[in-house]
Design a protein that fits this description.
Rossmann fold; 13 strands; 47% helix; elongated; 369 residues; 14 helices
Length: 369
C-alpha cells in the first residue's frame, strides 16, 4: 500500500513524519511525501530515502489581501493537482502533520474518500487540523487537553515521535557544577541569547558554580562566543548542537522555547525546564504547550517580554538551590513521555487503510490498493 505523508515547512512537521514513514517502510509499504521546494522537507525527505512530490502553496494568515487571494488560488490549484496525483498513486491513507503544506493533499484525500489520519503535536491544533477535525479518521495527539478539538471516539494520545536516545538518558545526579543548557532551536532565539548575555556578569559576581551549554543559532554566534570567552564562566557557546541527546544528558536544567518537538524531547528525557514561548507562534501554540508542562509541575513558564538577564539569573539560582524541586520537575516531565509513538502511528495508518480496503471490496470494484 502507498501512504501520502502531508506536512512540511519546518522540522517540527517533517521530522516526525519521516519517523512514521520509516515504520511504514519497515512494514513493507510505500511512503510518498508531499511538500514544498523552500521547506526543510526539500532537504530532509530525499536524504531519508523517500520520494517527495513538490507543490507551490503558502499560508493565508496575517497576509495582505492580494497575497492572501494568491495563496487561496494556489491552494485550490494544488488541491486539484493532488486529486489527479491520487489517481496515479492510489493512496491507502493520508498522514497529516498539519500546516498549510498539508492543505492540498488533505483536501484531495477528503474529496476522494481516502482516510485522513492527523498527528497534532501541539496543545492547540493549527488551523488546518481544526478545519478538518470532524472528517478525520483518527487524530493522534500529544496533550490530553487537545482531545476537545477532535471526535473523542477517534482520538488517541500517542505523543510525538522523538529520537530513541532521549528516552535512554539517565536521571542527572547532582554535581558540584550546575549545568544549564540554553537553546532556542537550530536557528537560535534572540530573546534567549540576549538574556543569557545579560546574565553572565551576574553569575560571575555571585560566584555560583554554573556551567553553560548555549546553542545560539548562526546569526548571533560569533559575537556571543567572543563575549563569553571573556565572561569568566565555564561552558561553551556554539551555533548548533549536532548531538542534542548528549547535551541533554549533561544538563541539570534546560532553558528553551516550547515548540512541540522541544517539549516532547524534554518529556522523553525527563528534564526540568524553563520555557520561554515564542510570542509570534501561530495561534500562540507555544504558550499552550508550555502551560501544559507547567500545569503538571514539569516546567516554569516565562513570557518572552519578561525574559531578561536578571530573570534568568534569579530563576537558575533558585532552582540550583532546590534540588528536590528539580527532581520533582524531571519526574513530572518523564510522566508525559510517550515512547513508541512513530510505530503506533504507523499501526493506526495501516489499520485504517485496511478497513478502507475491506469497505471498497465489499461494495464492489474500486481503486487497487
Amino acid at each position: 500500500m502507498t501512504f501520502v505523508m502531508a506536512g512540511g515547512g519546518t522540522g517540527g512537521h517533517v521530522i516526525p513524519a519521516i519517523a512514521v514513514a520509516r515504520e511504514i517502510a519497515l512494514a513493507g509499504h510505500v511512503a510518498q511525501f508531499v511538500g514544498t521546494e523552500r521547506g526543510v522537507e526539500a532537504r530532509l525527505v530525499p536524504a531519508a530515502g523517500f520520494p517527495l512530490a513538490k507543490i507551490r502553496v503558502g499560508g493565508v494568515k496575517n497576509l495582505g489581501v492580494l497575497t492572501k487571494l494568491n495563496s487561496i488560488w494556489r491552494l485550490l490549484a494544488e488541491t486539484v493537482a493532488q486529486w489527479r496525483c491520487f489517481g496515479v498513486w492510489q493512496p491507502a491513507a493520508v498522514f497529516s502533520m498539519g500546516g498549510y503544506v498539508a492543505g492540498p493533499p488533505v483536501l484531495a484525500a477528503l474529496a476522494r474518500g481516502v482516510p485522513v489520519i492527523v498527528m497534532e503535536p501541539n496543545a492547540v491544533p493549527g488551523a488546518t487540523n481544526r478545519w478538518i477535525a470532524r472528517w478525520v479518521r483518527r487524530a493522534l495527539i500529544s496533550f490530553e487537553e487537545t482531545r476537545r478539538f477532535f471526535p473523542p471516539d477517534r482520538t488517541e494520545l500517542t505523543g510525538l515521535p522523538v529520537r530513541g536516545e532521549f528516552f535512554s538518558i539517565p536521571a542527572k545526579q547532582p554535581a558540584a557544577e550546575f549545568t544549564v543548557l540554553i537553546t532556542g532551536g537550530s536557528q537560535g532565539s534572540r530573546a534567549l541569547n540576549n538574556a543569557a548575555r545579560e546574565s553572565w556578569p551576574m553569575f560571575r559576581e555571585a560566584g555560583l558554580p554554573v556551567r553553560f551549554i548555549h546553542q545560539t543559532g548562526a546569526s548571533m554566534h560569533d559575537e556571543l562566543a567572543r563575549e563569553f570567552a571573556t565572561a569568566g564562566l565555564n561552558g561553551e557557546v556554539v551555533s548548533f548542537i549536532a548531538d542534542m541527546p548528549v547535551a541533554f544528558a549533561q544538563a541539570d536544567l534546560i532553558v528553551s522555547r516550547s515548540g512541540a518537538g522541544a517539549v516532547s524531547e524534554l518529556a522523553a528525557a525527563g528534564k526540568p525546564s524553563v520555557l520561554v514561548p515564542f510570542p509570534f507562534a501561530a495561534d500562540d501554540h507555544q504558550t499552550k504547550n508550555g502551560e501544559a508542562l507547567e500545569r503538571v509541575g514539569a516546567a516554569i513558564l516565562s513570557n518572552d517580554r519578561d525574559w531578561t538577564g536578571a530573570k534568568l539569573f534569579q530563576t537558575v539560582s533558585a532552582l540550583q538551590a532546590d534540588p528536590e524541586r528539580l527532581l520533582a520537575m524531571g519526574e513530572a516531565a518523564r510522566r508525559l513521555a510517550r515512547p513508541g509513538s512513530a510505530r503506533r502511528a504507523a499501526e493506526i495508518l495501516i489499520s485504517e487503510a485496511l478497513k478502507g480496503s475491506k469497505s471498497i471490496d465489499s461494495s464492489g470494484p474500486g481503486p487497487k490498493q
